[in-house]
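Sample entry (137 residues):
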Amino acid sequence: MKSRRPMPRAKSSLQAWLGREPERGARRHRSIEDNPALQAIWDVVARIPRGRVSTYGDVAREAGLPGRARQAGYALKHAPDGMHLPWHRVVGAGGKIAFPPGSRAHREQTRRLRAEGVEVANGRVSRAALVGRLRGD
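Predicted structure, serialized as tokens:
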């Protein structure tokens, strides 16, 4: 009969929570509001004028993050409630509303855009509503 060796105990985040030393190489938790990339995206979205729209890709490019359209979407999803960003002014490529048709978010974005005078037909905004450069420099 083989003797069983005791399993080594793994350190866990519970140990850190209980006041013990954190593991070597452990990363410190950083607030989402402290992320400079997300801040840059939020700044760009805040500059989109009423009655105009921009795409996720253009927002990312203007924020200095070319090719990061998905990060622009992530930034909007995780924006603090108190920011009151005009999230509805950001659409997918070609002016398409990115939310699934018929969803609550799709209806809300369409409603908000139309209230600002943006033409929305078949889940797309008119090309005339797409804004050019947003940088304030």
